[in-house]
Amino acid sequence: MRTVTVKTPDTVNVAVQEWGNQDGPDILFIHGFSQSHVSWTKQVLSDLATTFHMVTYDIRGHGQSDKPLDAVFYTESHRWADEVMAVMEATGLRRPVLVGWSYGGRIVSDFLMKYGDEGLAGVEYVSANTNRELNAGSPALKVQAGMASDSLTTNLESSRAFLRLCFARPPTQDEFEAMVGFNMMTPAKVRGYMGSRATPYEATLKRLRVPVLVTHGEEDKVVLAAVGRYTLKTVPGAKGSFYQGIGHSPFWEDTERFNEELTEFVKLANPR
Questions:
Q1: pTM for the complete prediction?
Q2: Most buried one in 49, 89, 108, 191, CB count within 10 A?
């Protein structure tokens, strides 16, 4: 792993990590709400590293990245788009596949709204929230509100409840404890700002011309599977992979299948 700090156009320092084969096809992984780059451990420390050049990073407000407490850093779409572009440029990504999980799918869509898909090889939406209205019935919404509480007790209890909702196949106790740790690195105010954003992405999704894979767990209690089906229907030519018995984290709950499908997709998007 090589680590680098990237300064975004609005002066937020972002912690970035590079993994794997520097000469291989590029993949940029973007994690979800209250998570960190550690979420992608089962990808970057797998056999994928022999084939692909993989980049992860802690999005603003998360992990080891800066955590400004002004709402404007989180509520304006172009700032998220510029953050992705800054990471791509700093790590020399050449037509990467963007893999956006959950809120990371919003960030991918922010990027596409501003920059389009011409510089990309493909996009994988993983349990991604591309339509807030369709997700209004998510069981996670109530606990996410508690994660923005100023009460540390409420915040911690809500964070633990949220993480439990992220899995149909639970992680080990050690894994769960590590997840609680990096989730609690995200300030309550940041969580609250992020939860207020809209999802004005439909026109952008309809314009996509690069290969798109929609991956979603059928038992997802954070971003309902109906949202994944909406993305699949909206993006021209998109392919779908829906996991029976899997929740919000297919890349963790069924790593073997996820990594195999990601490998096939990236190779398809990068014909040699």
A1: 0.97
A2: 108
Q: Which two tokens stand for residue 65?
A: 């990245």
Amino acid at site 53: H
Instruction: Tell me the mean pLDDT per 10 residues along the chain, length 272.
Output: 96 98 96 98 97 98 98 97 98 96 98 97 98 95 94 97 98 97 97 92 97 98 98 98 98 98 94 68
Any bridge partners for residue 98, and if so which? 28, 123
* 3-class secondary structure per residue, the chain: CEEEEEECCCCCEEEEEEEECCCCCEEEEECCCCCCHHHHHHHHCCHHHHCCEEEEECCCCCCCCCCCCCCHHHHCHHHHHHHHHHHHHHCCCCCCEEEEECHHHHHHHHHHHHHCCCCCCEEEEECCCCCCHHHCCCCHHHHHHHCCCCCHHHHHHHHHHHHHHCCCCCCCHHHHHHHHHHHCCCCHHHHHHHHCCCCCCHHHHHHCCCCEEEEEECCCCCCCHHHHHHHHHHCCCCEEEEECCCCCCHHHHCHHHHHHHHHHHHHHHCCC
CATH classification of the domain holding 45: 3.40.50.1820
Compute the distance between CA of residue 124 and CA of residue 101 in angstroms, rounded to an integer. 8
Domain that holds residue 85: 2-269
- The Cα–Cα gap between 132 and 137 comes to 10
Tokens of 266: 């990236």
Measured distance CA(250)–CA(33) in Å, rounded: 16
* Token representation of residue 37: 């780059």
Integer Cα distance of 21 and 24 in angstroms: 5
Kindly state the tokens that stand for 134: 């369709």
